[in-house]
Amino acid sequence: MSVSASSLPQTERKQFTHCGECDALVAIPQRLSKQQRALCPRCHHTLAVGNHWSLQRCAIIALSILILMPFALTFPLLSIELLGISVPASVWGGVWKMATENYPYTAFLVFICAVVMPIFFALLVIMLRLAQLFKIKPRNVLLTINRIQPWVMLDVYLVSLAVAAFKVREYASLEMDIYLIAFVFTALLTTLLFIKIDSKALWNTFYPSQQATIIEEKNYLQNPPHFCHHCEYSFEQPLWDKKHRPICPRCHQHTERDNNLMLQATWATLIAGLIMLIPANLLPISTVYLNGAPSSDTLMSGVISFIEMGSYFVAFVVFTASIFVPVGKILIMLYLLCCVHFRWAHSIKWQMKLLHIVHFVGRWSMLDLFVLSLMMSLVSRGQIISFSVGPAALYFGIAVFLTMISTSLFDSRLLWKIYDKSSQSHEKK
C-alpha cells in the first residue's frame, strides 16, 4: 500500500525531507508499516519504505553469494563437442581468453562488470553488517554501495549465456554443466539483494539521530531544510569544511552542486559515447573462422544471422540490447539535455518516464560483450571452427560505459525547475 506524503504542513511539528527527483519539500510519517511506502505527491518517487530487510538478512544473502562465486565464475557453465573434444566456457575463462589474445581492454570491461563489481558489492554488504556489530560508522561504505549497483551485471550475463548457446548450436552440440546452477543462483541472489537492500534505511540504521528534519510549522517557509544529493538527507544547518564550503552533516559530502559543470560533464560523456558508437556499428564486432575462411559480423549483421537461423526471439533480444537501446538512450539524453538548455516546458511526466527508462535499460547493452567473451572461451583458435573479437567490441564497450556515466550525471531536478517556472508563468496569466 502506497502512502502519499504531504507537501504542506498539517500539524505543529512535521518530519520533512526533500524529494531527490523533483526537489519538493514534503512531510512523511515517522514510521511506516511493512505494507506501506511513502511517495512524493508530485513525482511519485519513493521516499521511504516500510518493508525492507534487516542488514543481518542481507549479509547472509551476500555471504551466500561469495560462497557460490568461485563455482559460478571459474568453473565451466557451458561446453561444446568439437572433434570429440569437450571445450568448456566459464566467466573467468572468457575474460582470460580475451585478454591473452590481444584484446586486454575489452576483457577489462567484461572483468569489471562480471567479476569485480559483483564480488565487491557482496563484500560491502558484509562490511556493513560487521560495522553494525562493532558499532562503526561506515560512511564511505554507504556512499560506495549506491554508486556501484548499476555496474553489477550478473543478470545481464545470465541472459548472454542463453544468447551464446543459440549462437553456438549451429556449429556444434552444446551441453550445460552442473556449475551453471551455481551461476544462476548467484545471479538470482544478487538481484534479490538489489531489490531488498534499502540505502535510505541503512543510513538511518547507522545514523539514527540524523534521519529526517523535524521543524516547527512556523519555520517551514522561513528556513526550509537543506538537502544532500549523495545520501538524500534533509537538514537544517550544514557543516563547513576548511575552505568554508557547506557539507552534509551525515555523509560529509559537499552539498553545493554547480549545475553548469554537471551539464558540461553530462554533455561531454554523452558526445564521447556517441562518437564511440559510430565505429562500434560500422566495424566488425566478431569474426568466425570456418576451415580457415573468415566471416565477419557487425552488430546489425549478427541480428540478421539470427533471423536467418529462425531464432527470432534471440534476434529481438540482441537487436534491442545492442542497437536499439544504445541509440535510443543517446537520443533520449540529447532530448532531455536540450529541454534543459532551451527551456522546453514539455510534459514533465513524459520526461521523467524517459529518464527512468534510460536508467533501467542502459546496463543491458553490455550483453553483446558478454556474449563475445563466452564465444572466445567456447570456440578456440587452431580448431576447424575458431572465433575472434572484432575491433568494434572495444568501441562498443566504451560507448556503453560513457552513456551510463552520462545518465548518472544528469540531474532530474533541472527539468522540474523549468516545469515550476512554466507553471508559475501560466498562473500569473
Automatic annotation (TrEMBL):
Transmembrane segments: 60-85, 105-128, 148-166, 178-195, 267-290, 310-337, 357-380, 392-410
Keyword DNA damage recorded: no
Signal peptide from the UniProt entry: none
Membrane topology type: Multi-pass membrane protein
Keywords carried by this UniProt record: Cell inner membrane, Cell membrane, Membrane, Transmembrane, Transmembrane helix
GO CC, alphabetical: plasma membrane
Highest taxon above the source species: Bacteria
Main location: membrane
Localization terms from the record: Cell inner membrane
Pfam families: PqiA
NCBIfam families, A to Z: pqiA_fam (TIGR00155)
Sequence similarity: Belongs to the PqiA family.
Identification of the protein by name: Paraquat-inducible protein A
Taxonomy of the source species: Bacteria, Pseudomonadati, Pseudomonadota, Gammaproteobacteria, Pasteurellales
